[in-house]
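Fold this: Carbon starvation protein A
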Amino acid sequence: MQLTYLFVFSAIILAGAYFIYGKYVFKKFKINNDNLTPSHRLNDGVDYVPSKPIVVLGHHFASIAGAGPIVGPIIAITFGWVPAVIWILIGGVFFGAVHDLGSMVASLRNDGKSIGVIIQNNIGKKGKRLFILFSFSTLILIIAVFADIIAKTFVSNPGVASASILFIILAVLFGLVTKWTGNRKKAFLIASVLGVTLMYFFVYVGMQIPFVLNYQVWIYILLIYAFIASVTPVSMLLQPRDYLNSFLLYGLILAAIVGVFVANPTIAMDTKVHVTDENLGYLFPVLFVTIACGAISGFHSLVASGTTSKQLDKETDAKLVGFGGMLIESFLAIISVGAVVVLTRSDYLSRLGAEGPVPLFADGLGTIISSMGVPESFAVGFVALTVSAFALTTLDTCTRLARFTLQEYFEDVKQPVGKKISQNRYISTGVVVVLSVLLLGSGGFATLWPIFGSANQLLAALALLTISVWLIKKKINPTFVTIPMFFMFTVTLSSLGLFAWQNFQKDAYVLSIIAAILFVLSFALIFLAKKSLTKEAKVKELV
């Protein structure tokens, strides 16, 4: 079978889903431009900033993509590429896109606040605190995992580090120019063309002037950068950098598609499904936890309700940004699968163990892109740089989101310490960075990814639970949300239980305790949600 067929089939499914199922979900959420968005009502020039749909899509897509839709699918292919593709397509359409759009719309109707505040408004204050503890823990895990991935990439490929630094400088300049020109469309278009051109030029420049530092130094530099990026106005760095970087990933996707059509590679990997793996465990539930961002990811709910909802100009922009952004990420996950299925299973397994998923993706896709006449070394470097750039966007977005959640947790605390944390973004961000450094001390990517995957997917189940309760209280049939919710709870609770037991047997007590705590927190939130709905039903009976 030719890889071209897989790409065309997947593109048709995802594009059709946007126009058909997306229209259905759009109507279910009753999205209406008559509702003034929080970016206009609460515009503060720092976090709440009304922005163009294409800019918000760039920020949102860059933030949710990261390395997740690349790392997860490539690891999950261990069970076979066919089940991975099936879950990416079904999960992306009926689970992930609904989850992302639902989180975004619910936040828009609640002053652009996070899922934690939405829980408080619909389930109660205890529910909010439990969810914030859960989401904050997950965000710290993500920061630690992605800092480790980026630092190792910078060490192994110093040219990527140089280009990334140039991108940040370019983003700041782009932000200043667009702020100065205001809403003039022609000026924005000219700045965009110039900015994207310079960005691709910096890919070449970065490769010529490698910036060499050791792993530990990069970790500290990355976390200092994340601190600065999370406290500056979104229009200064976050928005312009993510917007420009999104064209880097769009370029990667386009290059991958053209490269596949030019090279017309054959899928060398067999279609056999492997129910178990000695390292990962059983296909169920591990496959659905490992793929994560390519199909559904709880982290997306934090981005959608944390930063994106504060920037949407109109409610109708949510379909393109929320539903559409998720489907683009699912196609990126399909490309990740395509980058490695051109190998035989034995070659894939040996290289995955020796190199890891990111270099395997860069080499595979770089080889395909080189069929267009691009030098293979440059193509491989370009792919590695793209992964690194998006991991970097996830890193600083996570730091900002962790700051939001910490501030929301302490906004009800009356003591002086609580007030300082909730009102001072520098103090709250400092707490986030320090905790991330401490967690990195307990292990790197290989150690933290499994617990991150389980926590991330359980976060998705909890977000779906929140959206379901919100819809029920709005008297909207939530079936299209509750079915994915029940499935995700089944998957993630099973995974966390197994993970806690396996790490306990290995004497990895810290990770085992974290898994057990997350397991208990989720049941507590389910109980509180049920209690809230039961109480409301009794009130209606009395009335």
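The two ends are 64 Å apart (CA to CA). Residues 376-410 form the longest helix (35 residues).
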